Amino acid sequence: MPFINFSKDEIQCKIVYYGAGFCGKTTNLQYIFGTTKDDIRGKMVSIDTKGDRTLFFDFLSLNLGKIRGFDIRVQLYTVPGQVHYDATRKLVLKGVDGVVFVADSLKVQRKKNIESLINLAKNLAEKGISIRTIPLVIQYNKRDLDGTDSETLPIEILEKDLNSMLKAPSFSASALEGHGVFETLREISKLVVKDVSRKIMLVDKQLK
Amino acid sequence: MNIVITKKDIDQINSCLNEMVSSSLAHSALLIDRSGQLIAHHGDTPEVDILSLSALTAANFEATVEIARILGEEEFTLLFHKGKNENVYFSAIGEHVILVTLFDDHTSLGLIRFHINKIIEELSIILASIFEKRKAPMK
Question: Which one, A13, A173, B26, B78, has least CB within 10 Å?
């Protein structure tokens, strides 16, 4: 639910990073926070447990510059990944404008990725949103583990598991090293802004 | 689904917040929507990270709604956090918006509540018209 503020010529949008526990949602935000300048981002807020697991959400506000004369501000959230925090995930999805689904490339996480994507579709549907129409980007994280002792799934398998129906834009990434993090953010921002721009044009027409 | 706020809407909201802040001697007041987006802010709190406060407030409020449901209530319509120096008072306005009032010991909770109650009806009408616009057909 974007906020279009004609008084300040500002649009606020909400992007949620979704995925199974320990897939790297928080690491994505931490990398973005650590590599962007102070003047375009706010503070990063994390509500986590002592074991570094997200308890409620992480939050980071970013200013993306102007489009059609409007300042675009995106608010990035993560959800807690563990199965039993479903109520919290539903709260964070409230008013969502776009989703980044972070998939864990580790072979042992294959089932959890699929379960988490199904959970996302279900929670969006409860809010009257279709996973097929909301701006969505899929990120295959932990690609830095390719060629190490940890067994990872090939991209083709991950695509088949998670993206064969959705056909969403997808990126290989290593949130830890930063590879693919901004490509993912750029794509989801582009999709969300495009979606919002369409709405601004409609509002413009209505106001005229 | 999108929320459009015109200059006229913001002027009306700011006028309400201004009246409440100055007569109750609060620091400042924020109007946020329940997904955590900041709608309006009035007052003097340069050191406060308003955007983070908005996100956390919405989450906090929604969590208490769930607590209320567990206890058989529909929701708790107000919340109050008391600190050593700073206090925060949260009030739900309709189903979409939360008013957050920040104040210190220069005023009292009673005075804050009195002045919030005075503006809540007016704010409800302004906000209802903003959220009604959202329902207009967007073809």
Answer: B78
Q: How much is the average pLDDT of A112-127?
A: 97
Closest-CA residue to A203 (of A70, A4, A9): A4
Domain of B49: which CATH number? 3.30.450.30
Chain B neighbors of A92, CB-CB under 8 A: 59
Q: pLDDT tens digits, residue range B34-80?
A: 888 899 999 988 788 898 899 888 888 888 888 888 899 988 888 89
Domain count, chain B: 1
Contact flag A87-B35 (C-beta cutoff 8 Å): no
Residue range A3-84+91-198 forms a domain whose CATH class is alpha beta
Side-by-side strand order, sheet with B28-33: B38-43, B28-33, B97-103, B87-93, B78-82
Complex ipTM tops 0.90: no
Q: Is residue B139 part of a domain?
A: no
Q: B86 lies in a domain?
A: yes
* Residue B97 Cα, gap to closest chain A Cα (Å): 12
Q: Which domain holds residue B125?
A: 7-134
For chain B, report the end-to-end CA distance as a whole number of angstroms: 12
Contacts of B3 in chain A (CB under 8 A): 1-4
Q: Does A127 touch chain B (CB under 8 A)?
A: no
